[in-house]
From TrEMBL:
<dbReference type="InterPro" id="IPR004165">
    <property type="entry name" value="CoA_trans_fam_I"/>
</dbReference>
<dbReference type="InterPro" id="IPR012792">
    <property type="entry name" value="3-oxoacid_CoA-transf_A"/>
</dbReference>
<dbReference type="GO" id="GO:0008260">
    <property type="term" value="F:succinyl-CoA:3-oxo-acid CoA-transferase activity"/>
</dbReference>
<dbReference type="InterPro" id="IPR004163">
    <property type="entry name" value="CoA_transf_BS"/>
</dbReference>
<dbReference type="Pfam" id="PF01144">
    <property type="entry name" value="CoA_trans"/>
</dbReference>
<keyword id="KW-0808">Transferase</keyword>
<protein>
    <submittedName>
        <fullName>3-oxoacid CoA-transferase subunit A</fullName>
        <ecNumber>2.8.3.5</ecNumber>
    </submittedName>
</protein>
<dbReference type="InterPro" id="IPR037171">
    <property type="entry name" value="NagB/RpiA_transferase-like"/>
</dbReference>
<comment type="similarity">
    <text>Belongs to the 3-oxoacid CoA-transferase subunit A family.</text>
</comment>
Amino acid sequence: MAGFDKVVTSYADAMHGLEDNMTIIAGGFGLCGIPEGLIAEVKRMGTKGLTVVSNNCGVDGFGLGVLLEDKQIKKMVSSYVGENALFEKQLLNGELEVELTPQGTLAEKMRAGGAGIPAFYTATGFGTPVGEGKESRQFNGRDYILEEAITGDFAIIKAWKADRYGNCMYRHTAMNFNPMAATAGKITVVEVEEIVEVGELEPSQIHTPGIYVDRVIQGSFEKRIERLVTSKGA
């Protein structure tokens, strides 16, 4: 069954084929469940003109934020952008195009793209700037806008465990956008904490089936905390 083995041993192999002006869909929520090593490889490659679809753009100096340092990102499609000063600067200077999307709509855009559904109606955003210029219809007396699905040239994902066939499990809140993003890439690359033997994962516990995955790489993760909050006294 060697032909089904999707494990690669270098980040260069993991991101092989990424070129300027492509679209990357990245899993993660803030700094939780992000593919740290794959992002670092995109940084090393110096690929420019990228459209990046992700919940946010990391923070200054970490996560997707490192791709802003050399202006590798042309357009960001996100639902939250509040933790990155460099992002703000490039946006205000007209160096970065930003498409703000409601969070649930963003998740559904990825899911729909992965399912082969070109567009869907949602009530979210109707009557706001989000809905301007978009087709609208009324269903059961309520107004909806038409949102187009999202697909990407690459999807970069972080998982807890995967086998060599690319079957993946996520852990706790690191699941976030990863399952939807994994389905929406022409090439899906998973950076994983642990690679296990085929058959070790309980089939009913697999979150992303290997059919969606093209490459798997063993990663090493810092798992930085975005904002540490502690209680003051008991």
